[in-house]
Amino acid sequence: MLVEIIVSLFLLIGAAFALIGSWGLVHLPDFYMRLHGPTKATTLGVGGMIVGSVIFFSTQGEGISLHELLITLFLFITAPVSAHMLAKAALHLQLERVEKTRDVARKNTSGPCGK
Amino acid sequence: MKHQRWLPHPHLSILLLIIWLLLVNSVAPGQIVLGVVIAILVPIYTNDFWTDPPARLRLLPLLRYAGVVLGDIVVANVQVAILILGPAKRLRPAFIHYPLELESEFAITLLASTISLTPGTVSADVDADGRGLLIHALDVDDDEALLRHIRERYERPLKEIFEC
Amino acid sequence: MLSLAIEAAFAMMSLALLFNLWRVVRGPDLPDRILALDTMYINTIALIVLYGVHEQSGFYFEAALLIAVMGFVGTVAVVKYLLRGDIVE
Asked: Which of C38, C40, C87 to mutate to test the interface with A (most CBs of A within 10 A)?
């Protein structure tokens, strides 16, 4: 019973983070800000689900089941990479950013920061 | 072809063995043998693709760093979730240039990934000369404090792990 | 208890996927759409893991892992195309 509650909690936390991340994708005003939602909240959302799944399958009496952790590990490695590449592409295409975005790139080299 | 060695990337080999055992979800002797074979063969055949491995790597600080980052990921996620749920008008986004102290490419990659995963920041670009990162922050109040935070909490430990 | 939580989680994930779909349709720029698709596959992984728990079957793990790998490769390929206008250089 206790296990059920813990698993439920992790599943719900995971789903909540995924939902919040996706909501950020909808309502934040510019691309660079939207980038934050998926890279962080959604990744942790999957993480929460997977912890729930690990606990669930490990308590089914068939030994410990850890292979789900590979997915989290993989996402933790790839999410920053795809976020970085997307940001780079957005800078390359000079996507609009909200007015108030401050640009504190001190070394004003050529390229997007010197815009 | 780089200089051939029996175990060109010992750390990669250990990681591969662990990943293999996780993938098959078993620690049966047969799987361990198969995992060891893979852990030896894959680094040899992919040797050409790897940049030079970091000269040194301290395991204990690395584990401590992983623990700190994992904890920070959870904290940062809660923060970002609160920011997202709040009104978007209140956010103060900014592009910030972060001058790097690290020199090893691998360490810089790790730092950039950490930055993307942890506080309300995403690393957006690396300077052409590799001496700085361009960071986008979702809500920043004091740039200097953010830079100091990254420097103290992430870059210094990475320096300790990979460089002298 | 658990089945109720799973159903609630299903509902939340479906809503999350709808949000992503809205961003895919709405755009306004290509990176936005790619980002939305990227989020979508990550949410799908969560959904499949959830379904595995629902069905009490470990077989769904492989599917989730495959989507994780393929989704990442896909995102990188498309972004690369945006950056260079050419995938195979």
From this structure: C38
